[in-house]
Specification:
The chain is mainly alpha-helical. About 70% of the residues lie in helices and about 0% in strands.
Length: about 300
């Protein structure tokens, strides 16, 4: 049994599926065209570069080809120290331009954070191998890929811990929980926002939690104590997300808890965390591993 908080013995097929699924996520978040002609509030790379050229007609054609080739390399597991910087630069560029319009969004932050973390690791590993005086061990590539997968898990988990710490540092633990009493007002605002913008009744809710959504909203709006309990539970769930790194079972169950929390917030507040859920499913739930376990047991 592996020691807690150590790199799991990921199998090659697991890491291949992780890379393919992450590549699909990155391809999905990369736009086909950009309409932003200015960057009035520079963010990220926009502090150093004028990225508005990306909004010119056809400007993304070559970047999309480069991104496709880099993602193909990434999926293959070859030349990752070349593929990942290309992926990182391209995604950071379009993301910086989008976030330079005066309103910063974080919907694609987690996938790019994972790419950044793995990029740093593979560049370091390539440099280490170049400076190595003795030949690298035969399984060096396998171990490097396992470390990269574990680093991806750490990147996902760290985003939640930092989110919780930022809430605590900004409002204080007691203050943040106390302010949760205003959450029902946010629910009412969210529910009525579209109506007052369009004067049309909202569509019936859909999704996994649709049948219980009215019940949840009624609970939160009728009890500030319940609201505080729910949000405090979410805060501590984020704060203790590092526990997901204890081992494979902790990966799965903590990832599942975070996904359920996201789905609940999404249903109640209409705040969506699509890419967070994807990353949690890819690197923490890791369904292919659990499906393969019975077959591995039979071989043993």
């Amino acid at each position: 049994m592996a020691k807690p908080f150590t790199t799991p013995s990921f199998q090659r097929f697991e890491m291949f599926i992780m890379r393919v699924l992450l590549a699909l996520v990155i391809w999905d978040i990369f736009p086909g065209a950009i309409s932003f002609r200015e960057q009035p509030a520079p963010s990220g790379l926009a502090h150093f570069l004028d990225l508005t050229f990306l909004s010119e007609p056809g400007a993304l054609r070559l970047p999309r080809i480069l991104l496709f080739l880099a993602l193909a390399l990434y999926c293959s597991g070859c030349l990752l120290w070349i593929a990942l910087p290309v992926i990182l630069i391209l995604t950071a560029a379009v993301g910086s331009l989008a976030n330079s319009q005066g309103a910063i969004t974080h919907s694609t932050q987690l996938p790019v954070l994972v790419i950044f973390a793995q990029c740093v690791w593979y560049l370091y590993d390539a440099l280490r191998n170049r400076l190595r005086k003795s030949p690298a061990p035969q399984d060096a590539r396998l171990q490097a890929n396992r470390t990269a997968a574990f680093i991806a898990q750490q990147a996902v988990v760290s985003a939640y811990v930092v989110t919780a710490l930022s809430k605590i540092f900004t409002s204080g633990l007691v203050g943040w929980i106390s302010d949760a009493r205003y959450f029902p007002l946010q629910l009412v605002k969210t529910a009525r926002m579209d109506y007052y913008n369009t004067l049309t009744l909202p569509d019936p809710p859909d999704g996994v939690l649709a049948p219980v959504l009215p019940f949840l909203q009624a609970l939160f709006t009728s009890s500030t104590a319940l609201t505080r309990l729910f949000l405090a539970s979410g805060l501590f769930l984020e704060l203790c997300a590092f526990l997901a790194l204890i081992g494979r079972r902790w990966n799965f169950f903590y990832g599942a808890l975070l996904i359920v929390f996201h789905l609940t917030v999404s249903a109640v507040m209409d705040l969506h965390f699509q890419y967070n859920i994807y990353l949690l499913a890819i690197f923490l739930l890791n369904i292919p591993y659990w499906i393969s376990r019975p077959f591995s047991s039979q071989k043993a």
